[in-house]
Design a protein that fits this description.
Number of helices: 8
Mean pLDDT: 88
Helix content: 55-70%
Organism: Paraburkholderia domus
Strand content: 5-15%
Order of helices and strands: HHHEEEHHHHH
GO molecular function: DNA binding
Strand order of the largest sheet: 1-2-3
Number of strands: 3
Structural class: mainly alpha
Keywords: DNA recombination
InterPro entries: DNA_brk_join_enz, Integrase-like_cat_sf
Largest sheet: 3 strands, antiparallel
Protein name: Tyr recombinase domain-containing protein
Length: 213
C-alpha cells in the first residue's frame, strides 16, 4: 500500500477500500502509453471511498497495476479472502484475519499503524533515521509535490494546478495550488538557506581565525 501511496497519491481511505473489480475495470490512458486509470468515488462502479465523495480517476502505471493483479490472485491474499465476510471479499487489501484495514471512508487504520510502526523500526535499524517520524500521508504529499514539479516544467503553473487537482482528486483548486506554490518557492528557499550557511560558516571561520591570533 505504501508503494501505491508514493506512485498514485491515493489516500489510505481509498487504498483500503480498493476493489478487485476496480482493477479489472482499469482503463488505458488515451494519451500516455503504459498508464491506466482507476475509477474511484461514489460514482464509480464499484464505488471506492474518497475524501469529500469526489468521483474521478486515479492514475496508475502498468507496472503497479500488474503487481496489484498478481497480488490479488496470490495464495497469501486468497487465504485472507477465504476468512473475510462476504461483503469484504472484493477488497484488494485484507488483514491476515480477513478484515478490512480501515472502516470505509476513514483514513485511520489501527492495523496500518501497526504495520507502519514495524516498517519505521526496520528503517531506523538500517540507518534511515529520517523515517522515524514518517507518516503514511507523506507518500501522497510526495507524489503531489513531484507531479507538480514535473507539470510546472512541462506546461507552467496554470496547467500544473489542473493536473494536480485531477490526479489527487482535490475538491478545490486552492488545495492543488499549495503544492504549486511550494514547488515554486523551493528554489528560493534553497538559495536563501545556502547563502545563510555560507555566511554562517564564514563567520565561524573568521571568529576562529581571530581566536588563533
Amino acid at each position: 500500500m505504501l508503494t501505491l501511496g508514493f506512485f498514485t497519491g491515493m489516500r489510505l481511505g481509498s487504498l483500503t477500500d480498493l476493489k478487485v473489480r476496480t482493477l479489472s475495470n482499469a482503463a488505458p490512458d488515451p494519451s500516455i502509453a503504459g498508464l491506466f486509470r482507476l475509477a474511484v468515488g461514489p460514482g464509480a462502479d464499484p464505488p471506492v471511498a474518497t475524501k469529500f465523495g469526489v468521483t474521478g480517476q486515479i492514475w496508475i502505471t502498468r507496472t503497479h497495476l500488474d503487481r496489484l493483479e498478481e497480488y490479488v490472485h496470490s495464495v497469501r491474499r486468497l487465504e485472507r479472502e477465504a476468512k473475510a465476510m462476504p461483503q469484504h471479499r472484493d477488497l484488494v487489501f485484507l488483514s491476515r484475519f480477513g478484515n478490512p484495514y480501515a472502516q470505509r471512508g476513514s483514513d485511520k487504520s489501527v492495523a496500518m499503524n501497526v504495520e507502519m510502526h514495524a516498517f519505521k523500526k526496520l528503517a531506523v535499524a538500517n540507518g534511515l533515521a529520517a523515517m522515524r517520524g514518517f507518516r503514511f500521508h507523506q507518500s501522497r504529499s510526495t507524489f503531489a509535490t513531484e507531479l507538480a514539479r514535473i507539470a510546472i516544467r512541462a506546461g507552467g503553473a496554470v496547467n500544473a494546478i489542473a493536473m494536480v487537482k485531477e490526479a489527487l482528486l482535490h475538491k478545490h483548486e486552492a488545495t492543488s495550488l499549495k503544492y504549486i506554490r511550494f514547488v515554486e518557492k523551493a528554489p528560493a528557499k534553497e538559495d536563501v538557506a545556502n547563502a545563510f550557511t555560507r555566511e554562517f560558516l564564514g563567520l565561524l571561520s573568521r571568529r576562529e581565525s581571530t581566536a588563533d591570533d
